[in-house]
Every structure is written in C-alpha cells, then in structure tokens.
Amino acid sequence: MIYFCYFLITLLIIRLLVAFVNYLSFAYLPKTTPLISVPSVSVLIPARNEEENIGALLKQLSTFEYSMLEIIVYNDHSTDKTESIIKHWAALKSNIKLINGDALPKGWLGKNHACHQLAQAATGEILLFLDADVSVKKGVIKRSISYLQKHELHLLSIFPKQIVKSFGEKVSVPLMNWVLLSILPIYLIRKSKNKIFSAANGQFMMFKAATYKAIWPHEKYKSHKVEDIAIIRLFKQKGLASDTRLGDNDISCRMYVGLDEAIEGFIKNIFQFFGNSILVTITFGILTTIAPFVVYLYMGLWWLTAYLAGIVCIRFFVMLASQQSVIQNVLLVLPQHIIFLLIIIKGLINNKQKKLIWKDRNILQDL
C-alpha cells in the first residue's frame, strides 16, 4: 500500500507542477496590439432566451472602434424579449443584424446549428463566435487578431475570466479551471501537435474564415454536445495551428447563475475534460477524494500535512492564473470537491438515462 501512497503523492506533485507552470506562463493575450493587416471581422452570437445578457453585449460591441466589423445575432426561437432587444440595437447600429432561426433540423444540437447558420451569413475574413453572456472591452478584438496573426493561427479560443456572485457559483464555477489548469499545460496547446493537449471554450472562438469555411466544423460536429473541444482537436489533427488563452479584464463572463444551473452546465462537458473518458473521470474523482485519507493511514500525520499543503498550493496557483480569489477558493476546497463528485455522479446518471435539459432542449437524446 505504501507504493500506492507514493503514486498518489507523485500525481499531486505533477498536478502542482502543471498549475505552477500555467501560473508562470502568463497565458493571457499580450496587451500590445500591432496588426500586420486589418481584416474584416464578423462577430457571431447565438442567442436563445438571453434577454438578461444580449443587450449589454450589443451595447459593448457597438462602442468598438473597428472599421470593418459586422455583428450578427442568431435568435434561436427565444420565448422572452431577446428578439425585441436585438431589433432595438439593429435599428440603432447598421452593422448589427438579426437572423431569426428556422426549425432545428434532425440530427443537430441548437447551438451548433446556430453557429453554422451564422457562419454561412458572415462576410468577414475573421469569424468570432461569442456567447451572449460574455462581457467584452474595446481592446479584445485587436488583441486577439494581433495574437492570431503573430502566431499564424487558424483558431484562437479564450476562457473568459469568470464572475461568481452567489455561494452556489463560488463552490462550482472555479472547478472548471481547477481541473483544466492542474492537468493541462496551457502552452502545449499551441506548441504540441498532439491533440491530447487540447482545450477550447465556445464562449470565445476566433477563426480564419477561409479555414472555417473549408471545413465547416460546426456542421461536422452538429450533434456533439462539447463541440468546442472536438473542433480544436480536429484542427490540431489537421495540422492547423491553434491556441487557447486565459481571459483577463477585457473578456469576462458570469457563466452560470446559481448552483443548479452550474451543475447542469458542467454535466455537459465533465467527461470531455478528461479526454471523453468516463473511466478516467471516475478514477480522478476517486483518487483525489481518498488520497488524504490513504496518505494519513499509511504514512502518518506529517505526510498528510505535506499532502494538504500541496492541495492548497495547487488552488493557489490555479486561482492566481484564473484571476480569482485565492483565499475564498482555498476556504471552499471541501464543498467544491463535493460538488465536483456530485457533477460526476449526475453526469453518469444522465448518460444512462440519455436526458439532460439545456435551454429547454434535451441534448442527450438520440439525434
């Protein structure tokens, strides 16, 4: 059993090193924005029942000083005031356009279909897919294009800085970066050709339009519930340079409102964080749960103290890199881990039942 303890400690050290490297790599977009050229940009926003968010995003985008910018919003059968808010902004700004969605075809998931329709309508040399709940500042488009051009990327994705307000969000939303930044060295997304080093966030995905329209990735993954990760893996498989960055104050998002919504949201992609392997996900959940107890029982209090210090250090570096409260997340380690296990369990149940309601649609049903 002592060798199992050594294995658990080694796993912790590896995760700590990954978190430390991600902190040191400063994985944000550079502040300076020299552009090699000034391409036309299409900002593409799928929206379904987004009356709480869409107006704020369109207001922000309408202030952007970029000469060739079109903004297209796809209203996906919203039943609230989303359509009227979009029409209001389209009447104020000539570069804002509304597309009202058709019936969802069989075999498609709603967001994937919306993104595909948006891309077909877009005229820009750069396609930027933004979720309606994202908040952006003026510099983000130029900073993104500059980085895209400098590294000759075909795809750039960003994990927005997460805004958490309620207690339920504080014990759930940070889990995404806790997993991501402790198992995946961010710099290897661009540096390595191996598709295992892949991560992307559909809240912000920027493509070279020519590349996108040669592949039509949202159509290719029309029924994939975690299409963002599938798309970046495809690009890496094809040898198309791609990268993913962390967001700063120029791009942020309150991803979920409350605990229930956060849990349902993370259930969609919990297994994708671990290479779409249920076995690996369950193993990670079990090992990170039992490790402190096993170390204490077979190695004693000193080793347990060292192990717990390692857990705290991982949170420390992950939260610094994520620009989130370190103290708050260290204090919430235990409830966050309980929520993490609950997400795994509910994910397994939903997979068995083939039922997960998101935006009033069952995204696990047979398509």
Automatic annotation (TrEMBL):
Protein origin, superkingdom: Bacteria
Cited InterPro entries: Glyco_trans_2-like (IPR001173), Nucleotide-diphossugar_trans (IPR029044)
Cellular component annotations (GO), alphabetically ordered: plasma membrane
Predominant location: membrane
Subcellular localization: Cell membrane
Keywords assigned: Cell membrane, Glycosyltransferase, Membrane, Transferase, Transmembrane, Transmembrane helix
Domain Glycosyltransferase 2-like: 42-209
Name the UniProt record assigns to this protein: Glycosyl transferase family 2
Organism whose genome encodes this protein: Aquimarina amphilecti
